[in-house]
Amino acid sequence: MQQTSTPITKDLVLIGGGHSHAIALRMWAMKPLEGVRITLITESSSTPYSGMLPGHIAGFYTHAECHINLRSLAQFAQAQLYIDTVVGLDLVNKQILCAHRPPVSFDVLSIDIGSTPASVNVPGANKYAIAAKPVANLLTQWQQIVEDNEKPLSLGIVGGGAGGVELALAMQGNLQNHVKIHLFHRDAEIMPHYGGWVRRRLQAILRQKGINLHLQETVIEVQPNKISCESGLKVECDRIFWVTQASAPGWIIESGLATDSQGFVQVNDYLQAISHPNIFAAGDIATMINYPRPKAGVFAVRQGKPLFNNLQKTLLAGRLQAYKPQKTYLSLIGTGDGKAIASWGNFGIGASPLLWNWKDKIDRQFMDRFHKLPSMSEPLVEMRCAGCGSKVGSTVLERVLQRLERIENTPDIVIGLDAPDDAAVVKVPEGKLMVHTIDYFPALVNDPFIFGQISANHCLSDIFAMGAIPQSVLAIASIPYATESKVEETLYQLLSGALLILNQAQIPLIGGHTTAGLELGFGLSCNGLASPHNASLLKVQTLMVICENDP
Ligand SMILES: Cc1cc2nc3c(=O)[nH]c(=O)nc-3n(C[C@H](O)[C@H](O)[C@H](O)COP(=O)(O)OP(=O)(O)OC[C@H]3O[C@@H](n4cnc5c(N)ncnc54)[C@H](O)[C@@H]3O)c2cc1C
User: Fold this and answer.
1) What ligand 1 atom has the least distance to the C-alpha of 282?
2) What is the pTM (predicted TM-score) of this model?
3) 413-415 vs 425-426, strand pairing mode
4) What distance in Å separates the CA atoms of residue 508 and residue 416, rounded to the nearest whole number?
5) HSE-up (13 A, CA, CB side) for residue 47
6) pLDDT value at position 549?
7) How many other C-beta atoms are found inside a 10 Å radius of the C-beta of residue 99?
């Protein structure tokens, strides 16, 4: 969580923990911008490094070795981390719509969500084939296949681009003669974005390894355990993997961002959306209008640094720097057997173990940048007076309360948030005892929405432990110094989390106190009602009597 004495004035939100964002976050940690709050919204707390993914499937790398831990990285960059799936953008109100949380506001936005294999028109593909992305799902399915690997298996792979070819070689390398692999590709040659030498060499290697290469075959239907092609060819396969050409999620085009014909965000040489100057995109999801390139991890990695520079320049109102991706680049492709081939344009050598060792060294060095994050010294913070002047303004609070969904007050609440006063007033019904507790925590996680939920659950637990029924709660929150709109955003996320729990339990929020401080903190004072006969209260009553009688 951002700990700074400078008020937050800008929100930079990154959607997707892809390669470019991982690099940008690491660079941000080394050179943060005062007053900018950075938030990463991504589906999972780890993200795969594409260069080592085929090696993991081949059995050379563990899951941890080829995944970047986004939680540690976010912490290193003092970024908020929201684990959620983005499902839309409201560009008019500059908000990000998520599947499981309230909308998230931004000033500057960057998108690096990768792509998924296109399967649009092929009946049965979505239902019966395993898509190469999301990678987490691919790896879960693959793990099961490896664990159940008792009888010989036939696997179908649809798509003969770099991903499909590497997947075929890696699977073959792992399961060896326990597997028969069928690779389907609609063109006469595999890997359309590579030079002639690589295509021919890999085609020969695939055949040497006994992989059935079905070229000029267009898959038109997938049934359980069967692939049907336009030519009439039908092949029985126990499991089918879908690694076709990359596609973009529908919400990108629906948001109003300018996209290419396939729905990828069109960006200029600054990686800036051509339709919205405060939005950037990198990796597979972006199409550089002046430099079209294949959708490959290598480009996503290289865009990390220019993306970071231009995000900072935008926030500082500086001049953006143009970026021109290389046209020809060195490619090291593993063959699933501890060897690799190297290619540069139309030239290439291998397969050889030396090239694999070289690739392995480069990939491990890259991942070490994320696995061994340097320890940063604590930022210096200057103390502020935290008297009544630190109170968050009433207009901010009012706006937040209006945006929240709260349950109605119960008849016990005489003065609550509907007509707020200096203090809330509640009735204690006749014959009942009132149980009070208070708990308060500094931020436990760098996501205020989740933090609000955790705190609310914890605070209520004391009431339940006393055998009482919660009646009402008061909230106390400390929000990091920021401009009004940024305080509002944090408070909104925090209270949305707390109210999710309180509304489920039908407990009204009746008041509270919100202050600005160095770091996020939140707690609830809870009131509960209990019957005097309740067993767990008897010990308290006894204690009270003892205290009263004790001189
Ligand atoms: C089997 C296979 C092997 C490959 N091998 C190679 C290789 O060896 N070399 C190479 O250069 N390329 C390879 N590729 C291609 C490579 O994986 C992609 O080009 C690369 O991952 C793109 O990187 P990215 O940063 O754009 O996004 P990704 O690496 O895909 O990361 C996107 C991130 O965004 C998150 N995300 C996605 N959608 C949402 C959402 N709606 N809300 C929130 N978060 C979201 C994801 O969880 C993920 O963390 C391979 C692809 C496949 C399928």
Assistant:
1) 26
2) 0.87
3) antiparallel
4) 9
5) 25
6) 41
7) 10
CA of 542 to the centre of ligand 1 (A): 63
Task: Judge whether 355 and 332 are in contact, CB under 8 Å.
Answer: yes
Facing residues of 364 across strands? Answer: none
- Euclidean distance between CA atoms 283 and 264, whole angstroms: 10
| Residue 75 burial by Cβ neighbours in a 10 Å radius (0-12, 13-18, 19+) | middle
Other C-beta atoms lying within 10 Å of the C-beta of residue 97? 15
Tens of pLDDT along 439-466?
999 998 999 999 999 999 999 999 998 8
Residue 135 Cα: closest atom of ligand 1: 53
Crossing angle of the two packed helices 484-504 and 448-465, in degrees rounded to 10: 40
The 8-class DSSP code of residue 283 comes to G
* pLDDT score at 484: 85
| pLDDT at residue 329 in the model | 84
User: How do beta strands 413-415 and 104-105 pair?
Assistant: unpaired
Residue of 539 and 438 predicted with greater confidence: 438
Question: What distance in Å separates the CA atoms of residue 466 and residue 539, rounded to the nearest whole number?
Answer: 10
Segment 49-63, tens digit of pLDDT: 999 999 999 999 999
Other Cβ atoms less than 10 A from the Cβ of 499: the count is: 22
Give, for ligand 1, the residue of 41, 50, 85 to mutate: max count of ligand atoms closer than 8 Å to Cβ.
50
Residue 415: the pLDDT is 86
Cα 37 to Cα 9: distance, rounded to the nearest angstrom: 8
More confident residue, 230 or 328: 230
Q: Is 287 in the pocket of ligand 1 (CB under 6 A)?
A: no
Give residue-wise pLDDT tens across range 345-397.
Answer: 889 998 999 999 999 999 999 999 999 998 654 433 333 444 455 666 678 88
Q: In one letter, which amino acid is 242?
A: W
Cα angle, residue 378 at apex, residues 373 and 108 outer, rounded to 5°: 70
Provide the residue type at 215 as one letter.
Answer: L
Give the amino acid at 164: G
